[in-house]
# Entry
Amino acid sequence: MKTVPKPSRTARRTRLGRALLPAVLLAGLGLLAPGGQAAQAAQTAQAAGPAPVPDLVCRLDAEVDFSPPLGLLVREAQVTGYIGYRDCRSPDGAAPELTDIVFHVQGTGRFGALPVPTFSVEGTGSGVWNTAEGGSLYFNGELKKGSPVPERTVTSGPLAGDGINGLQIPVPRFDKIDPNGVAGFDVVGQVCFWNGEKGRCTAY
# Structure
């Protein structure tokens, strides 16, 4: 009867080390169990700091008109109309008294045909808050469904210096005389006013 030699302690330690190495690596990467992933996510969030909170969240109700209508034959036109911020609330408590304002706007509208048709607007607006305080803003950007609202900054009045972002749904109004011309847009959506760093308006 042959005697099978026992593995040495060194060999056992080597095999044990090889078996434990993948587990150690997975644990270090937070991939061994959901608990590791959660802990890693919590550490990342803690390192990033708290997310910014907006001064105001408002329902967007706007109308812009092009004169003359924009299209293939007219690439630039005057913009008039209004940008309304309604049913506002203040998540960070900075301005709970501000609930509604309508900015009457004027500026320039542009049409670009390549690579895809695009409409953009740039201008300024002024209006009066529900508190009887005046305010003004600057806007610049494209009108596309589901896109971020054109860049906007409060230039005077309450929350002066705040940046505005959000999502918009613009619906074109075609010219009654020239079916290829766009006479303007009706726009709905949601916007947020931010003092400093902007966050995701859709989170509110």
In short: The longest helix spans residues 9-29.
